[in-house]
Amino acid sequence: MASPSIAAAAAAAAFAAAGVVPGGGSAVQTPAKKTAGAVAAETATDALSRLASLATPRTAPQAWASYPPVTVGDLATVNFADSSYFDIDQYVEAKSGEKAAACKYFFKEATQIAKLQEVLNEGRQLVYTLYSFRSCGRAIPQVQAHNQDNKEYLYRRTYEVLRPEIGRMIQLMSFRDKLVLVFTDAIASIIPDIRERDLFPSEPYLLMVAHVLDLCLSLDTMKNMKGSMNNDLSMYKRALTNFPKDQAESELGLLQKLAFFLAQPDQFALDIKKALATMSNTYEDILHDMINLCVDAIETNHYLIPTAKHVYLRAMAFAVALLDGESDERDITKRKKLKLDKLGKIFKAMPFVPLFGDIVVSLPSVFAKAPHIGGGKWDLGTADDAVKANLQRAFKLSSYIQSNRIEYREYIARATMLFAATKARKTLHAGPMSADDCKTIYETALTGLRLMSDFTAKVIEQAAYKFTNPAVAGGGSSIPDTATSYELAVRYNYDSEDKRVLVEYIAMIKNLAALFEQNIVLLQSAVDRTIYRDCQVFMRGNITEYFASATKKKKPAAPLLKYVRDVVVDGTVDDDAAQKGAQSPAETGSRANPISISQLHFARTMMDFMFNEKSKGMKGGLIKEKAFKDAQVAELQRFFDESFFYPSMMRLAETIRECSDLSNLWFKEFYLELSKQVQFPISTSLPWILTEFILDSQSADTIQYAFYPLDLYNDSGAKTLYDLKSRVIFDEIEAEVNLCFDQFMFKLGQRIFVHYKKQASLLSLPSDIKNELDVIHSQDSLNSTSYEFILKQKDLKLLGRSIDVGKILSQIFNQYLRRSIDVALVRFESSDLLNIVELDSLLESARLTRELLAAHVQLEDYDQMVSECDDSLSLGASNGRILSHTIHEIVNDIIPNFCFNSTTQRFVRSPVFYTEPIQRPHIPKTRPMYLYGAKSLSVAYAAHHGIFKDFFGERHFHAILRILGPSSLSVVVAEISRHVSMIIQHTLNPFMDAVRDLSPKQIYYPQADTDVSAAYDFYASSYKPLLQHGDLKGEILQAFRETGNSAVVVKCLSDHQAVANSLAKVSLQEFVSPEPGQKAYLDFIHEFDAKLPFGDYAMSVSGWAERVTGVSRPTHYAGQLMQVFVGNVSQTLKNVSGEWSDMTAGGMISNSRSFLRIWSSLLFVACVPSLAGGDRVIRELFGDGLVWSGCLFLHFLGHDAMFSGASINAHLLSMARAELGAQWPPSAHHQSPVPSGKAAADHGAQAMRPDVKRFLTTAHVFEGVHETAMALLKSIRHTPTQKTASYHA
After folding, report:
1. Cys bridge to 354: 53, 464, 1146, 1233, which one at CB 3.0-4.6 A?
2. What is d(CA 702, CA 1082) in angstroms, rounded to the nearest whole number?
3. 228 in the Ramachandran plot: left (φ > 0), alpha (ψ -120 to 50) or beta?
4. Do 86 and 106 meet the contact criterion of CB atoms below 8 Å apart?
5. DSSP secondary structure code for residue 141 in this structure
6. What's the DSSP call for residue 381?
7. Which residues of 348-357 are buried (b: 16+ CB within 10 A; e: fewer)?
């Protein structure tokens, strides 16, 4: 199809031809009396009217040859029923009778041409019948025994089934006799005139002889191929003789004659040769002329239909076999009339000629029957390897693709612009097209048809070469030894280059056919008018001038010239003025219909008779002047050559179909007969092989040709219906199309989906990784518009059916998108929550894929598909799969098994687990197309996601918020709150008594002058029972860790929601709620209902604005998430705390179960290094969540203000600060040298024991965490709303 740039150039050319100024106005000047406004309005209106008049083609390109519209034309042929044109006695002097005899000869010749045409039509139908013939004998059950019960019934049914088939065989045999009789009569009737009056056969007659000889060769080839006819005849005769029936002697004799006819090969050729041998040798001159005419036609490409070239080749080979004889007198090599050198070159260049379908005629096997030619220099068997290699290159399409591609592109651009410009001019200027436009279109159409015919001939000839030179199985090749003959000829005989070039040729042929058929009305009108005008101009101008000159010189050709002119010309011509030397007007009127076929045949035949070099008037001599001068002969020859194409151009629609017919690439009847199979697998069919090659190709530009091989089914289906007339073969074509099309759409949809999936995945990758992948996935291939070409196909024609390809592909894409989403969910459910980043990437890739595809086809809503796959729309499920798994992983993995780091704000997995491991299913293996489109992209994303699998932090919370949305966070917080409540009720509360019993009854604070190490040892010895308690880490500290981690998770979710709300508020600030004193845009929209008549609309503008306001309003969950969590936990503590909050005013706490005392004890033992074991500290095992849980309880119980005074760690840290001074904290200065001259160096950081130093470091970190947590909790406590909200999952 034409590119947008070509279409734009065509539109510009159309405007320029119509006189439209590029600025939008017209080249016509406006009268001065008009105002500037009126002139501008008129110019705009005129420009719009011109734009409206231009043809606007469908935006969707067409990937097949469209069916032409119905056109009304004259009869293509009347079979010379009006051959009385040749009765010109009134124009010829009766003195010698030579001219009258000549005209009677041409009248006789036209009559014979009509008879030969009738026989030719009947013979062609027999050729089609023979080709589509299939043996019925193999399907008929045989009689197994002589005494079989149903023997008579089987024979009778066999007779009834085979009788129609035998009738067709008898028809073929009878046609042989008819053909020989008509052909020999046509030859014998003109031999006397040729021998006695020096007349010669006309070009139409010689071409008809060539077609009849080709018919004989074709029927012999078809009959020799169908060996199954003999089997059917034998079965028929056996059935006929084995059941009671009155048998006539004539019928039995006819069957015997038929058996001989079928058994003997080349019956048509032998009978033709016998019949010609009884005639005068003058028939050889006719065959000589026919061969020379065909040689000239092939050398000069003087044919339009591609099959005409093959007819000429086969007819020449057969004529050579007829002319050559055993005797030296019949030696064809000694005949000077034949152009043997040129004939030999043609036969060497084209030894294999396609006949029909998969049947190929080997010309060497035809002319090898000539005694003086066979086995000679024309035989390829004696050629060397270099000659065979050159022959192979001559048949390969890849040898011509470069030059043919350039010719095609140049022609498409030129023709598209010409047709568009002509249509524009025709629309803007009412009336018929000008003569120049018609002539230009005619020449362009003829050039395009010859180009398309050349492409089609090359394609069919390459297929013929492949059939005669199949691949070789075995011998180390990849071809299996079990490959059938058809597979060797087709499936394994085309390499990747052959397939690629063949697909491109098919696309060029079908695009040219589509271009012609889309403009068939314009082309046919221009062709008819051009043919009519050229004939009228030539007859009125040139022929009248020749007539005047011949009359003046009293030449015998004068009356013939006048009669030819009067037959063709409309109206009258002033001969008197022409004889006086006045120039005859060449211009003539226009007519929509051209001249008739009979008029054209008469004019060309008579002109050829007058100026042909064999004509008496053109022989001349020393004192005898020729009938025409050389310049006149050149003009006559030019018109004669141009008018040769007129009949084909007058039936333009049929010519287009014949020039683009590629049905031979599907038919396989010869190989079915050869292999005795009913049908071959679809994998061996060439249309499907090409289609599969396109779909499996890695080139993005090749996919645009995906539909063109399918058009081969249209060609073969039309050929089967209208020529073969075989219902069986058409049913096979239809069945193959049904199977292939389903597979084709499946593979095509998968290919397009993978393309857009890779494109979407690359868009989401970080730039550094994306740059590394550019080598593998080039942007040129991913940005190719070939897939858009496919998606725009809405009306694909296939065997008469109209198929919406985009609609079918949209259904396939919906399935793939659902599968991609489901795969992402299954992978997420099979892994921990760290993989939620991968889930976010997979869902984003699917969303972008859907967005890219939705620009071309209609797809289902993405959110709806996610909801369906997530089961969040199910009535039986309260939560979706993502939400349920997220809650499960947070509660059962993140909270109990991760350590929170306040510095990095990340959770890392603890090195020691105190809970049972979670059993997860294995991640299933998945095709790359459902992930990121390609394996390399999956590897890149895996590397990118690898950095997020060592911790749980900001990226993960961001993914949770994006996937679940703000509304689902409340469910997550409610489940976390429920989990914390269960910990408090069933773990912490029972273990409070154990902590109290293992702690000292009373705690005394050391004196002020006590050393830090001594104080630490004192407290460590006091809490030794608690330190040695077996459930301290696994139960008590684990419970505090889970409570603290829960609070941190809720805090992180709240923080990320707050950021999202802030961004939403900033982006919508001006539109929804601007600064005070300003009016928002929505406020203006609310006033439209009062000012504009929107009352008739389904929804008012103000109603729409209200909905926009509601949708765009930022969510307010952020401030409530932490508040809800705090409220729920606080309510639980009130139910189980008991006497935890009772305290005295002294230095000791009277109630040993008070949480203030319990937390002080637990915080101290948590900082003791020996509790963790080895080189670890307890912070590495439990993280900062321990401190968050203690702060949370202190905040709920109101002990946060008093904790600093009751905390053992705070007391020891105060002592350390006083003791170390500038060397505090010890972790930062433990390697600093002690200042010289100080007596207290032993009390410095370097003299401090390592265990004390580690204790102080941990206590110092926990102190900072305690301050941060308390500050946050105090801000939540002062939130105006203190009500506790309840959320249910």
Report:
1. 464
2. 51
3. alpha
4. yes
5. P
6. G
7. bebbbbbbbb
Measured on CA atoms in the order 619, 624, 630, 633, is the torsion positive or negative? Answer: negative
CB 630 within 8 A of CB 620: no
CA distances from 1196 to 986, 1125, 1127 (A): 19, 12, 9
In the chain, what's the furthest Cα-to-Cα distance? Answer: 162
Sign, CA dihedral 477-482-483-484, equals positive
Please spell the DSSP secondary structure of 703-737, one letter per residue.
GGGTTTTTHHHHHHHHHIIIII--HHHHHHHHHHH
pLDDT at 1017: 86
Angle among Cα 808, 814, 816 to the nearest 5 degrees reads 105
DSSP three-state, residue 900: strand
Catalogue the E-assigned strands of 1072-1198.
none
Amino acid present at 311: V
Asked whether the predicted pLDDT for residue 714 surpasses 80, the reply is yes
**Report field, pTM of the whole predicted structure over 0.90:** no
Tokens read off for 49: 């009217």
Between 204 and 572, the higher pLDDT residue: 204
The phi and psi torsions of 1192 (rounded to 5 degrees) equal -60, -45
| Alpha carbons 972 and 984: distance in angstroms, whole number | 19
Token pair listed for 661: 């017919």
- Euclidean distance between the first and final Cα of the chain, in Å? 58
Angle (nearest 5°) at CA 1177 between 1176 and 1182: 110
Q: How many CB atoms lie within 10 A of CB 117?
A: 17
Q: What's the Rg (C-alpha) of the chain?
A: 49
Per-residue pLDDT at 4 exceeds 50: no
Extract the tokens encoding 134: 């299939």
Q: Which amino acid is at 886?
A: T
Would you say residue 1107 has pLDDT above 80?
no
DSSP string of 1244-1271, one letter each residue:
STTTS-HHHHHHHHHHHHHHHHHHHHHH
pLDDT given for residue 1212 in this prediction: 85
Average pLDDT, the chain: 80
- CA 77 to each of CA 70, 117, 526, 595, 607: distance values in angstroms, whole numbers, following the listed order: 19, 10, 21, 12, 21
More confident residue, 1245 or 166: 166
Please tell me which residue, 773 or 356, carries the higher pLDDT value. Answer: 356
Helix (H, G, I), strand (E, B) or coil at 952: strand
Q: Please, where are the H alpha helices in 1168-1202?
A: 1169-1172, 1178-1182, 1185-1197
Yes or no: say if 1192 and 1130 are a contact pair by the CB < 8 Å rule. no
pLDDT of residue 1228: 41
Q: What is the pLDDT of residue 53?
A: 46
Calculate mean pLDDT across residues 630-657.
91
Q: At 908, which helix (H) or strand (E)?
A: strand 906-909
| CA atoms of 69 and 123, how far apart (whole Å) | 30
Residue 1097 banded pLDDT, cuts 50, 70, 90: low
pLDDT at 666 over 90: yes
Q: Is pLDDT at 823 greater than 70 in this prediction?
A: yes
Q: How far apart are CA 103 and CA 609, in angstroms?
A: 10
Helix/strand/coil for 352: strand
pLDDT band at 1008 (very low <50, low <70, confident <90, very high): low
Q: Kindly report the backbone phi and psi dihedral angles of residue 644, in degrees, each rounded to the nearest multiple of 5, phi listed first.
A: -60, -35
What is the spatial distance between Cα 739 and Cα 1100, in angstroms, rounded to a whole number?
53
> Cα–chain-centroid distance for residue 574?
64
CB 528 within 8 A of CB 593: yes
Range list of H helices, 429-543: 435-468, 485-486, 496-518, 520-537
406 alpha-carbon distance from chain centroid: 24
Q: Does 917 sit behind a cis peptide bond, omega within 30 degrees of 0 on the bond before it?
A: no
Three-state DSSP at 1115 gives coil
What span, in angstroms and rounded, lies between the C-alpha atoms of 406 and 564? 43
Phi, psi of 901 (to 5 degrees): -110, 115
